[in-house]
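Q: Predict the bound structure with adenosine-5'-diphosphate.
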Amino acid sequence: MQELAPQAQKERFKVLLKSLFGYVKPHKGKMLQAAASMLLLAAIRGGIVYVMGPVIQGVFVDKRMDILSMVVIGLPFLFVLKMVAEYTNTYTMSWVGQRAVQKIREDLFTHIHRLSIEFYWRRRSSDVMSRVINDLTNVQSTVQFIPLYGIRDVLTVVSCIGVLFYIDWQFALISLVILPVTGLLLGIFGKKMRRASSESNVIVSEISHKFQESLQGITVVKAFNYEDQAIAKFKVSNDAYFGKMMRYLRAATISGPVMELLGGLVLIGIIYMGGKAIFAGTMSTATFFSFSGGFLTAYMPLKNISNLNSKLQQGLAAWERIYQILEEKPAVVVKHETKNIDHLDGKIEFQGVNYKYPSRDTQVLKDLSFTIKPGEVAAFVGPSGSGKTTIIHLLLRFFDPISGRVNIDDHDMLDLDTTDLREHMGLVTQDTILFDDTVYKNITIGRPGATMAEVEEAARAADAHAFITAMPQGYETMLGERGVKLSGGQRQRLAIARAIIKKPKILLLDEATSNLDTASEQSVQAAIERILSGRTVVMVAHRLSTVRNADKIFVLKKGELAETGTHEELLALNGVYKGLYEAQS
Ligand SMILES: Nc1ncnc2c1ncn2[C@@H]1O[C@H](COP(=O)(O)OP(=O)(O)O)[C@@H](O)[C@H]1O
Ligand SMILES: [Mg+2]
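A: Predicted complex:
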C-alpha cells in the first residue's frame, strides 16, 4: 500500500474499507441491537455521573435518609441494567465479528477453488495459509472492536462530557484539553503502524513457509543433515519478525501511557482549581466530587479511542492481504455461452499451439500440431523438460495457449466450459494426492455416490483390490496425512482406480505407472487397455516398453515434434526414438 501515490493510496483505502464493510452490512439488525445497547450504556454512565453530585450532597452533607434509601434501592437496578447493556453490546459485536470472518473464510476457500493453476504458480501455499489464519484473526478483532471503541466509547465520552458541561462549563473546558491531544496521537502513529504491521504480516507468512517446508521435506532435511542450515535460515526470519513487531508496538503502545500521563495532569489541574474554588466558597464539595468522578468515567473510554487507530491500521493491513487474494481473477476465463458437450467422441487436435510459462522467457511448446482420433492410444515420449506434462495440462485447460488452438471433437476448447470438459477426462499423475478420507471416498472423488461394486471393479482393474482388502478396515480405511501410509506403487494404483471409475472419454496418464514394478506395470497396463477400449488415451511414459502398443507415438524435443509414428515405424526411422530406445534396452 505504501508504494502507491497519495491519491491512489486514498482510493485503495476506500476500496478496502468498503469491501470490509460489505461483510458487516448484512448484520444491520444485530448492529442496531448493539448500537442501542451502546447508547443505553453511554446514557447510564452519563446518568451515574449526573446523580453523583446530588447523592454526595444529600447523603454526606445533608445527611438525608430518604436519599440514602434511594441509593441503596436504585443503584443496584442501574448497575444490573449497565451490566446487561455491556454484555449485550460486547457479545453482539463479537457475534458480528465472528459472522463476518466466517463469511470471509468461506469466500476465500471458495475463491481459491475458482482460480486457475496460474495462481498457485505465483503464490506459495504457506503464504495463503498465513493470510487465512493470522491476517483473518486481526481482521476479526478489528471488525469487533472498531464499533465498540468507535461508537460505544465515543458515545460514553460525549455523554460524560455533556454532563460535565452541565455541572460546570468552565471546569469542563479544562478537561477538554485532553481531546486534541488524543486526536494528535490518533494521527501521528497511524501510518507508522500500518507500515510496520503489513511488513510483519509478510514475515509471518515467511515463517509459516519455513515451518511447512521443513515439515514436508523432513526426510530430506534429516538425510542431508540440513537441520542446522534450516534452523539458521528460520532464525533470520524469526528475528526480523521480532524487529518489525517491536516497531509496530512502539507506535501502538505509546498512546496508552501518553494518555495516562495527560489524564493525571488534567486531574491534578482539576484538583488544584477545584480546591481553590471550594476554599473560596464558589463550589460545593459535592459538585467537585461529582465533577472529578465524571472526568474519571470519561477517561477510560477515551483511552480506548486513542487505541482505535492502532486497531484500525492493523486490521486494514491484514484485510489488504486477504483482499489481494479475493480480488485475484482466474487466468482461464470461461465464456458466458459455452457449447454443450454431453456427448464426446474423444478426438483431440492441436493446431499450431504455442505456449510459454509466465515466469519463463523461452517457449515450452512451439507451433505444435497433431491429431489423435477417437479411441486411439497416443503416447508422448521425449527427454524430461520437453513439454509432455505441459501438453496434458493444456488438455485439462489448466491454462490457455498463447496462440494456436486446441480442439476437442472439433470444438475450440475455448468455447467449452472447463467443468464440463474435465467431466470427460481422467487424470493419473506421477505423484498421487490422497485426501484425509477413506479409500472409498478417495477413489470416488470424481464420481461421488458410485456403488461399492463399481469401486471394487475399478480397484480390481487397477490391481489395487488385493492390498485394499488386506488393510484392517478395507475400503473404509482412512488415508491421507493422519491415515494409513501407502507405498508409491499403492498410491499410484489408487490413482488409476480413481481415474477409471469415472469411465472418462479421454484418459490422461502422465507417467502413471512409473512407480510400479515391471510386473504390476504390465498388469495395470493390460487392465487400462481392457477397461478403456473405445476411449481416447493420452499417455506420457518414460519407459518406452509401455508405449510399444500405442497407436501413435509422438516424440517431443524441446517443445517440438521431432518424430511421429508407431513403434516399428519410429525404429525404422533410425532417429531420436531409436536413440532413446537403444539407451533404455
Ligand atoms: N509452472 C511452471 N512455470 C515455469 N516453467 C515451467 C512450469 N512447469 C514446467 N515448466 C518448464 O517447462 C518445461 C517443460 O516442462 P514439462 O512439460 O513439465 O516437461 P516434461 O513433462 O516433458 O518433463 C520445463 O523446462 C519446465 O522447467
Ligand atoms: Mg512431466
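A: Residues 121, 357, 359-360, 364, 384-390 surround adenosine-5'-diphosphate (ligand 1) (CB under 6 Å).
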